[in-house]
Design a protein that fits this description.
The protein has 183 residues and is mainly β. It has a single domain, classed as OB fold (Dihydrolipoamide Acetyltransferase, E2P), CATH 2.40.50. Helices cover 13% and strands 40% of the residues. The strands form two sheets. It has a six-stranded mixed sheet. The chain is globular.
């Protein structure tokens, strides 16, 4: 998974996925179907014991030990402003590689982040012409989390923008804001 595709958004047409990203891992979250480009997926693991970390935003459920590496785990439902996910037999953690910007003199590095999903569905191929730009909802919903709306068998699949949903910089800012509020 060494080649991640970074998309600069310049207007609605930029939200459409690149041809290199035609395969997506689909999963259910609160009854809705979401997708992430498989170039970002590292692995899928069974939901197991999480170690909670004090003073983290509510959507960060904790960390796991993944072959000796500490990996933060994000509850996507909570990240989207909904109630936390309930753990069932089908709940799993999808490990995603996210590019983290280095300092001015460093190249970007990758960070593994786990996301809790209700269940993984399948890998689908969605052609670029079957992906619509994200809808304009207004100021109350974060449309920057949505890369596009894929049309599959007459249904929509919400294709997530991993760079925005799992922005390490934004999550760090939220953590600092929570510390200020707690103090």
């Amino acid at each position: 998974m060494s080649s991640l595709v970074k998309v600069e958004q310049k207007g609605p047409a930029a939200a459409v996925a690149l041809p290199e990203e035609s395969q997506y891992l689909t999963f259910l979250l609160g009854g809705d179907m979401f997708a992430i480009g498989i170039l970002n997926i590292k692995e899928i693991i069974e939901y197991g014991h999480l170690t909670s970390v004090p003073m983290m935003p509510e959507f960060i459920r904790g960390v796991i030990n993944l072959r000796g590496r500490v990996v933060p785990v994000v509850d996507l439902r909570s990240r989207f402003g909904k109630p936390s996910s309930e753990v069932t037999k089908r709940t799993c953690i999808v490990i995603i590689e996210v590019q983290v910007e280095g300092s001015a003199d460093e190249d970007p590095v990758t960070q593994d982040i786990g996301v809790i999903v209700d269940s993984v569905s399948e890998v689908l191929e969605i052609a670029a012409q079957d992906i619509e730009p994200p809808p304009a909802f207004g100021a109350h919903i974060r449309t920057d989390f949505i890369r596009g709306m894929g049309k599959v068998n007459g249904e929509f699949v919400i294709i997530l923008s991993v760079e925005n949903v799992l922005s390490v910089e934004e999550m760090a800012m939220l953590e600092k804001a929570a510390e200020v509020v707690a103090a």
